[in-house]
Design goal:
about 180 residues; alpha/beta; Collagenase (Catalytic Domain); five-stranded mixed sheet; two-stranded parallel ribbon; 5 helices; about 35% helix; binds zinc ion
Amino acid sequence: MRPMRVMLQPVGESDWQLLAKLAIRLPQNLPFVECQVSPKAVSLPTSAITPRRQWLANVLLAHLVIPQGFDRIVGVTNVDLVVPPFNFVFGIAEFEGKRAVISTARLIDHNAELTELRALKEVLHELGHTLGLPHCPDPTCVAAFSNTLADTDRKGPKFCLKCYQRLLISWQQQCSEAQQKD
Ligand SMILES: [Zn+2]
Ligand SMILES: [Zn+2]
C-alpha cells in the first residue's frame, strides 16, 4: 500500500501558516496520508456567491482540479460555505471521490491553536467521506457529524478504531484496484 497523497489547496485569501500546520498534523492523525500545500491559491469563483454573501460549496468543489501525482485535493477557504437548504456547512466532500472543501469562517478563535485543531478535524472528516466513510455514531470520533461548533469541539482529531479500519481497507482496495489496471 502506498501513501495517499493529499494536496491542500488554498481558495481565495489564505492563512498560509494554518495550511502549513494542517499539512504537518494530517499525517499524524491519518498515518497513511502524505500532505502538501499548493504553493498557489486559486481564486473564488464569482458564480458561487449567493445573495446572503455565502458561497455555494458545490460550485467551489467543482472548481478544484486534482494535480498530477495526487490522490485527493482539499480546498481550504475563509469564506462561509453553504449547501441549500442548509444555513451553512463547515465543509463538503465527494463521497467516494477525490475532492473536498472546508471553510474556516466559523472555526476562527482568538486561540490560533484551537482554530487549527478545528480545521484539522474538518479536513480529516471530509477526507473520510472521500474514502466512503459515513458519519459515525460515536460523538468523540472525528467522523461524527458536526451540526454546531460545539459538536466539532466535542470530538477528537482521531477516527475511532472501527472507522480507521474502514478507511485503511478502503484505501488498500483503491491501491490494489489501481495496480490491477496497470
Ligand atoms: Zn460529514
Ligand atoms: Zn468512528
